[in-house]
Amino acid sequence: MAKDVLCEVNSCRHWANENQCTASSIYIVNNSDKDAHKSAETDCKTFEEK
């Protein structure tokens, strides 16, 4: 499992300095009916607006 989770979405409640994610867990889903092959084909369900 990843030791550090980085995120550049500074409008998220879980965003901290140096792009650190402070969420206790991360939930990412596929945003299409096909298997994802690019990050743009996924969505972070952990996102919460500040």
Automatic annotation (TrEMBL):
InterPro entries: DUF1540. Pfam families: DUF1540 (PF07561). Residues 5-47 form the DUF1540 domain. This is DUF1540 domain-containing protein. It comes from Paenibacillus eucommiae. The lineage of its organism: Bacteria, Bacillati, Bacillota, Bacilli, Bacillales.
